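Predict the assembly for these two chains.
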Amino acid sequence: MTQTNSRILLVLFVAAAAVVPLLFATGYQLFQLTLVVAYALSVLGKNLVTGYGGQVSLGQGAFYAVGAYTAAILMEHFNVPYWATLPVAAITTGIVGLALGLPALRLGGLYLALVTFALAVAVPQLLKYKLFEDWTGGVQGIVLMKPDAPFGLPLDNDQWLYLFTLAVGVVLFIAATNLVRSRVGLALMAIRDQPLAAEAMGVELSRYKTLTFGFGALFTGVGGALGAIAVGFVSPDSFSIALSLTLFVGMVIGGAASISGAVYGALFIVFMPNFAEQISKAVPGAIFGVILILFMFFAPGGIASVLATQLRRLRAARTG
Amino acid sequence: MKRRTLLAGLGLAGAGGLAMPAIRPASAATLVGVTKTEIKIGHIVPYSGNASSYGVGGRSHSAFFKRVNDMGGVAGRRINFISLDDGYNPAKTVEQARRLVEQEQVAFLFNPLGTPTNTAIHRYMNQRKVPHLFLATSADKWGDYKAFPWTIGYAPSYRTEAQIYGKYIKEQRPNAKAALIYQNDDFGKDYLHGLQDVYGKDFDKVFTKVVTYEASDATVDSQVVTMKDSGADVLVTGAIPKFSAQVIRKAFDIGWKPLHIMSNVSASIASTITPAGPEKAEGVITSQYLTDPTDPDFKDSADMKEWREFMAKYLPDGDVTDANYVYAYSVATLMHIVLKQCGDDFSRENVMKQASNIKPVALPLLLPGMTAATTPTDFRPLKQLQLARWKTNTWERFGNIIGA
């Protein structure tokens, strides 16, 4: 299969992802798919930092919250249209990410994990803090209006929002693919695998580490903004430490250091908890835990790596 | 609009036996989640996460409606009770509410838990015109029948509670010089508003010292000192357990002995009284509306007997000292009463109409003499409390039932 072929396949896949749900999915399912795209972007951001960059961040949920609140505050207090909040959310979270990238220079491994964890723990309380309360709505949060389809398109809010979110997602996924294939991406992976060798080759460690944090935060922040628009509500309770851990789970299950893995991871974190709950209401957490362990047992490299192996086998069988 | 008609159509088609031509498609009644043999009810509660201790409410409701079914259901229909987990995450609540309304096609939502979680679906439920009944949260805003005609609360709101405290103070200490401390958010402000409701323009004259704290504060000691220095002889504390405990302890330690009335969310012995020191809490007043399953006064009451039998048969491993089960049993009974009141018409419009036309009715496990009641302009089913005073090692109820 040539590269052109796989590109055509990809275009077909995206087209199908846009059209099929519109024809067959209910509003509720479209809403879930919209969340999948939002989470996929967030997992992608996490993947850049941890999967590609090798920096263990447990606080990715904080960037999701910053993106979500940026969108919500702009819509609520400044009457900014929902689509225009995305670039602002991207820039804001990008800057926050860069600022937090600075300690990443000094701290490595477990210490960085702990600092980012602390950030995720602090965020819900900061959002309730008096000084910001006029903006964040404090513990009550902010209720948002669902956007209608523009130009009189014959779509309801769920259909429109799904298409819109999908479009943003596709653009950012292409950007991320190009990023990891570029010199920056190579430098990142070199730092992850052999920091000393990378430095010897002339890769500036500090610069790239900070950049990774910035980019990772940016993707996650846009995901957060899209998620907030889809849910129509933000409050401190939406962004507890559990969110950061959920994104972490999504990254590992989907496949660390894999662009498409982010999509599988997002599908997992949106649909698997519901599935676990269906099996047992008494202990949904335990069921979810067992599923996680099974996944790690049978697909240690994440869903993406399993799929890639299968695909390779299929091709080998065909050519052989 | 189109979707709703479609849903109505589906509901009617599902009703099977109902003769379609007899009901015009333009009819106001929206029949979803109801067939000749079944009524689908949706419920959301945290079974997982930090607030999962509230999950017992969901288990209690499931058992309750199982008993209703065992006894023949309602109007010949069995209750299909679908309870989902949101982990107390508002984003998840939205997803689960949409799943219940759009996918499961429930007739209505009953007793979903939490203030932020219900806030997240408040507008959605009302836009869809799906009854959002008897919420498990005491915020005052669920009584807003004008802006949100499809949402109705249950327990006495914090504001109702504060109004009752205001009435009591007015009666006991007509010349009170009072102080108020409240948490600086919607929960705490309900106490401020409730007292203002009672005192009106005299509020500032009576409450000469009003202070606040943030839920993120470490201590409220300095606020307590300021309030003492104001010379107040009455103190109202609208706070969560951690801070109520601090207020009790600090006031005692600096020798301030006002008539102290404390929010009933802080009535917990384990999380307020014990940390403060039971001897320092002597004389503190709070309020109750449910019978405590450990209260010896009610050991042999008919309600308790009924409830214990229910627990023994349907929830044999449930903790019979857990007040959450008592709460759940009382609110599920109210739901059952509303369903019976619906007759044979379980359209969303009629369910909402019956939920907002409840003639005063005594529910099991409410304190004796209390009733639940609603009218189309009163969406607060419970509006009564009884005061209780901390004495040595227990809360002692005293005085009459007080209504707001």
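Chain A has a mean pLDDT of 86. Chain A touches chain B through 35 residues (CB under 8 Å).
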